[in-house]
Every structure is written in C-alpha cells, then in structure tokens.
Amino acid sequence: MVTLKGENIYLRALEPEDLDFVYIVENDEQIWEMSSTQTPYSRFLIKQYLEHAHKDIYEVKQLRLVICSNDDAVLGLIDLFDFNPTHNRAGVGILIAEKESRGKGYGAEALELITNYGFTHLHLHQLYANISEDNGTSIKLFEKKGFNKVGVKKEWNLVKETYKDEFLYQLIYVH
C-alpha cells in the first residue's frame, strides 16, 4: 500500500495487534451515535473483522486505516466507506479516540491524507460525510478541509428519545 505519511501522523492498515483498540472504540457508547451502532461487539467478531481487513476496497467497499503519531502511538481510525467505483465516490469518517489527542491537528492531517489518497489513487470524483447537527468539531474540521454542506436530513437519527438532523457534506474533486 502507498505510504500515507504526513508531518505529524501516518495512516496504516489494521493489524491483528489492533484488536484491543478496535474493541474499545467499537464498544464506546459515547460514539455509537456517530456510527449508528446499537449493540456491543464481541472480541470474537472484531477478531474476525481484523482477519478480513486485508481485503481489497473493491471487494468490501470499505477501507479502514489506523491513525498513528510519528512515535507510533495509535490515535484513531479513518474510514472510506460505501465505496462506489461506478460513480467514483465514497463516504469518509474519522475518529480521534482519546479526548487528550483531539484539537491538535491530527484529524485534519488524517483527513487530508485520505482525501489525497482517494482522489489520486482511487480516482474518486467526490467524498462525502454525514455529520450530526451537534457535532461542531467535525463540522469545523470538514469545512476547514473544503467540504461543503449540501443538505440536511431532517430528524434523521433518534438519539436518546430526540430526533437530530444530520448534515451532508461533500467535496468534489476539481481537476
């Protein structure tokens, strides 16, 4: 795989050693809202997922990469999902796991790396992101990286008995 290295971080493929990290992230109820998760994942299921993580994006329509600092600390995950080679588009999602690591530019750098990868290596025409109306941090990040708000899905997600709007952000590649 192409090395996805920035100034302060790099992106790498999932490894079997990431089991504990992915298990903790996927079972953190505070982020279930962002991922539309409803139930916990077992270590067994996550182990199976990691065993198949090497599969090609053209086969599984997803690419999940680990965000690491230059000193090899695991910071988070970034995904291309709903990859559609017919229409040359994919969704993008990002998570910096630890609150102490947020606001330091790691997310912006990871988003820039995956965006460049998507446009140059996967020949995508566009990337999109679905962001909850109250996720100001993600809204600010995606807007900073050139994504435009193109739509509102009214009362899209039910969270703790309250319906929340979800914003659709899009970045179209300009040649």
TrEMBL record:
SUPFAM superfamilies: Acyl-CoA N-acyltransferases (Nat). GO terms for molecular function: acyltransferase activity, transferring groups other than amino-acyl groups. This is GNAT family N-acetyltransferase. Keywords: Transferase. It comes from the Bacteria. It comes from Aquimarina algiphila. Gene3D superfamilies: 3.40.630.30. Residues 9-169 form the N-acetyltransferase domain. Pfam families: Acetyltransf_3. The keyword Transferase applies.
